[in-house]
Amino acid sequence: MQGEKYYSVRMRSAKEGSHEQGEKHISGGELLSTYNDIKHAVNALLEKGLTHSRGRPDFMQIQFECINDPIKLVNPLQVMTNEVESAGKGQALARKLLEQAGIPRKSIEKAYDQITEYSGIRGAIMLDIHSGERIDDRKEKGVRVSRMDWLDTNFEKWADHCQIPQNPRVKEALVLATKVSEHPATIAELCWSDDPDYITGYVASKKLGYRRITKLKEFGDEQGCRIFFVNGLEDLNSYIHYLEKQPVFVQWEEK
């Protein structure tokens, strides 16, 4: 990996127009690629954007750019799966885990009061753990975490060791959660997909690891959620720059 030049390859797709026109978000994706593998990366993201369960897009943008900053290597968060019987019990568990991660209960409840309002935002929202208020200034765009990946060979080795299915969805989510949790300003993340066919979500933090919860919504629900619970006393501009610009490879090494 050292000495190789890498490129950030990104895709976003929408229905009935572009995102700037306020139309329906369909899919997005992020990969890091060498120059020789860019065609493979573009094709993988193209396939993802064309076959998403949220619908058939009529707008898609795929772009790549050279990465000049040093790539940071981070270990994947430890994964634990929590089986629950219903979305209600899943959400109750999520609240409990957020509190264990260090979020005050009043801020958790304030966040839940705002979830419906923010469900259509394309990226993540940032909430201050002290006030429960939103502190990013990105409006309906949100904060998009970018420039991150996990080499397939290393991911597959990790999955075999941990006896976890080699699911691209798990890989993608764990990469993002690992990068977000690595920054000291992040206290916890709460996430579930806007995919109507996927009801598993997670709470993640450096303290708790990546805690999958098998039901956080009902099948057919297209409302997603991605909230970063942040220590608002940190330098927010530096934090957002890390999320958007710092290149990160997740890399597992057997101990």
Describe the fold and architecture.
The chain is α/β, with parallel strands linked by helices and 255 residues long. The chain has two domains: 6-68, no CATH class; 74-250, no CATH class. The protein has six helices and twelve strands. The protein has helices at 38-50, 87-101, 105-114, 152-162, 168-182, 236-245, and strands at 6-15, 24-34, 59-66, 72-74, 79-82, 125-128, 148-150, 186-192, 201-205, 209-213, 225-230, 248-250. The strands form three sheets. Strands 5-10-9-8-11-6 form a six-stranded mixed β-sheet, with helices on both faces. Strands 2-1-3 form a three-stranded antiparallel β-sheet, with helices on one face. A hairpin with an 8-residue loop joins strand 8 (186-192) and strand 9 (201-205). The longest helix has 15 residues, at 87-101. The chain is globular. The protein starts with 5 loop residues before the first strand and ends in a 5-residue tail after the last strand.
Topology, pairings included?
Elements: E1 6-15, E2 24-34, H1 38-50, E3 59-66, E4 72-74, E5 79-82, H2 87-101, H3 105-114, E6 125-128, E7 148-150, H4 152-162, H5 168-182, E8 186-192, E9 201-205, E10 209-213, E11 225-230, H6 236-245, E12 248-250
Parallel strand pairs: 4-12, 5-10, 6-11, 7-12
Antiparallel strand pairs: 1-2, 1-3, 8-9, 8-11, 9-10
